[in-house]
Amino acid sequence: MVFQLIIFKLAQFSVAIPLPLIFLFDLLFSLFELRCNISDFLNPRGMGRAFLNSLIVTIPATILPILFAAFAGYAFAWMDFRGRYLLFAILVGLQVVPLQMTLVPILRFYKELGLNGTFLGVWLFHTGFGMPYAIYLMRNFLGGLPKDLFESAYLDGASHWTAFTKLVIPLATPAIASLAIFQFLWVWNDLLVSLVFLGGTTPVMTYQISNMVTSLGAGWHLLTAAAFLSMLLPMIIFFSLQRFFVRGMLAGAVKG
Amino acid sequence: MLKTHNTDNEPGGIISWFSSTLGQILISLFVPIVTFLVLWQGYLFLQRAQAPQIVQVIVAIIWGVGGVALLYVVANWLVLKLPKPWSSRLQPFVFVGPAIAIMGWFLAVPVFRSLIGSFRNRLGGGWAGLDNYIFAFTNPRMLETFRNNLLWMVFGTFFSVAFGLLIAVLADRSRAEVIYKSIIFTPYALSFVGAGVIWKFIYTYKGIGLNIQEIGLLNAIVTGLGGTPQPWLNITPWNNFFLIVIMIWLQTGYAMVILSSAIKGVPAELLEAARIDGASEVRAFFKITVPYIRGTIITVVTTIVIFSLKTFDIVRVMTGGNNGTNVIANEFYLQSFTYTHQGRASAIAIVLLVLVTPVIIYNLRQFNKERKGF
Fold first, then answer.
1. A-chain residue closest to B252, CA distance
2. What ranges do the domains of chain B cover?
3. In A, residues 128-167, which contact B (CB 8 Å cutoff)?
4. How far is B363 from chain A (nearest CA, A)?
């Protein structure tokens, strides 16, 4: 028994210690570098602007899909209409579509509409892609709320609109919170969509960093500082809202 | 006049059915179109505005989000103005209409366009028959991507799940469980680009020559132990595995969190009984814990398989698909944006769709069986 315990302890240390150590090493390293390079962020190469751009992209692209999904999720869970199960299945099934597949057709469509290189285009794209998961989650969460609650509300004369705004939104806060965290991280960490739709004219953080990785052969000190800055926000969100994060993951909030 | 009045009383009539379906379609279209116009106006306003950036950001956010919210209010108000049977039939479509329209536009329509595009030639002008698919399945470039994706799928998934399970079990017995789990989980919250930077530092290689200092972590270890530095990301075919390690580093945390919560659900009496009967810890783990959480393991495996099939960012940032590390999604990107061969790109995308579909369907089914809601 003692022997097994030692083996377990050893295994535990050998797996659990090196990974975070590697990570912490890098983190400390980049922090150290950040001290002397913070002024680089203010130059026209545009890291500060990129940070702002990332925020402009991320905030509406987080709120919009949740708003749409909350309405749709409520309708699928508590409203009676023809073909709702079929419709729900189709919408959720749409998550099989790989992101890459839609890039070119949407790009052409945007070109016709003049949406290329605009924030609106990126918001709408992220909204469309966040939706299958968001609807799936919201429907499941709202469907799990007690039936009596809604029935007594309807009996008391509440319309669907009242039930939605007064009952569902407050009750669904945990679901909304975990969805928000996930959607925020997906959009914030995304490279491909902003690369294609925004490109170099309105660069976001990930775009700038990926450019530095390939072009700034000698600028490692800048690269680490930039990477650290881009990790800062997700880290803060992750550590402060870990509870919702894990809960959301257990409910299937994973982007394929 | 009389007729419409009658159909209002009998919702089952054919005319009523027809017009309510029409109404549903109209509303599904109307709401998003107006949404779009509102957003568009806001966008034009922002283009013209010369306000400071911070103000622009705030206006953009309020305009976009507020516009959409307002739209729901207006559409709902309009529908409630209609006679009772109409409003109750149409109201659900005020709620789901925008979601349907946006998903149709961004997900369903592109699939059809890609499907058609995959039979067209390079610039999408004339028809190419099956040429693009022949390219997708026989070209050596593509065969390389298939091989690599297979490696990602098999090794990436296996090690992510195995490490996740191991850490979940070990952390379960530790007093510092939360700390271990937080640290292991952290990479999951990082961007692939950020992870790419971290791993560039580990794999970097400066070349051989006088006064060249290796700054890569792995090369530092190798030279510290008396070896010669290696260009890790150029050694075919092992560089694939060095990239897969990054994926494992990212995905282990995910597997761990899900599996950990499942392990907590294994009844303690079962394990206790096994121990009393003389089963070793390892045996109890494989004979009780693993079968008990089998459903969860399948969910995790399928999720990570989907991830590995669609993998793009890691390869893009680390090697750009050079030196035999290309994957399907990256080849799609190259065909589409570097070689501008839309036909081939579409065919590759369709192949990816076909590969991923069964896994996702299986995954969703499993998830529905596992848990409903939160």
1. A19
2. 2-117, 132-370
3. 128-129, 131-132, 135, 140-141, 143-144, 159-161, 164
4. 10
Contacts of B144 (CB under 8 A, 6+ apart): B324, B326
Name the CATH superfamily, with its identifier, for domain B132-370: MetI-like (1.10.3720.10)
Residue recorded with tokens 């890569």: B216
Q: Has residue A23 been placed in a domain?
A: yes
A220/B106 Cβ within 8 A:
no
Q: What is the CATH number of the domain that holds A240?
A: 1.10.3720.10
| Amino acid B80: pLDDT | 76
Q: Quick check: A186 contacting B, CB < 8 Å?
A: no
Looking at A57-61, B64-68, B300-304, which range is the least confident one? Answer: B64-68
Q: Return residues 123-162 of B near A (CB < 8 Å).
A: none
Amino acid identity for residue B351 in this structure? V
Render pLDDT for A152-177 as a digit per residue (tens, 0 to 9).
888 887 788 888 888 888 888 877 88
Structural tokens at position A243: 């509870």
Report residue B104 as tokens. 């149709």
pLDDT the model gives residue B154: 92
Chain A interface disruption, residue of B37, B80, B95, B276, most A CBs within 10 A? B95
Chain B CB within 8 Å of residue A215 CB: no
> Minimal Cα–Cα distance from B192 to chain A, Å?
7
Number of domains making up chain A? 1
Expressed as residue numbers, the domain containing A17 is: 2-250
| Res B2: pLDDT | 40
